[in-house]
Amino acid sequence: MTDSALQPNNIDACLEARLLDVENELDKLRDKMRYVRLETRSNSQRLAYLEPITQDLKRIALSAEELRKFLSLSQEVFEDINPPLPQSLTPSFPQKYVPNPNDLVTHIAADRKAGRKIVFTNGCFDILHAGHVSYLNRAKALGDILIIGVNSDNSIRRLKGATRPINPLEDRIQVLSGLGCVDHLVAFDEDTPSNLLRIVRPDIYVKGGDYTKQTLPEAPLVEQLGGVVELLPFIENRSTSKIIERICQLKNGQ
Questions:
Q1: pTM for this predicted structure
Q2: Same structural domain, 146 and 79
Q3: Distances (CA, A) of 220 to 9, 12, 176, 205
Q4: Cis amide leading into 8 (omega within 30)
């Protein structure tokens, strides 16, 4: 179990989810008991139905009470040994995000052992739009596991200027993680994903149709690593730059 899994927020979230499950189960059993009382006609029938339900109610009620007590104590204990971060510093990346690129090796090894084909692509994904979603769905359809390398904020500033990104890395990761086609997300701070490609060694490297294999800088590396390059056409007139341009036009009354 990782250290992050032991953080109080993660533990409390798991316990709260379990508590909700227990209380839902408790409500269902109460409903069953009401039904039995209303629908059974003889005492012997009622006893036959009610005895196991009563035992379950006692067990679940006890579990719920124990969970409540543990929840109330756990936050105090963890705050003593590990004070909470300020809200502005509290990480909120989703489970699909892999903070350390080298940790991808473990995920990929398991996928390859299971015979899954690894697809990799990368980009800024600053303002996610229909073109992005279509592109990523088509990329995933080429294999089994889709890994996305996401440019860091500093990387985007170098590539696109000081006014970008519009959305910080954390927000972009959160939005991308909501797509069902995405399996893993990893950030990179360089101008190109070459280091990630060496780690991932994808079976298929996907880029948008504004490139050719001759103009794509990563193409020789991908092929050297045993992968193939697939170029997918973009949806026309769908881009972050056009969205920003349109917003500016609307702001200026155009």
A1: 0.62
A2: no
A3: 44, 48, 28, 11
A4: no
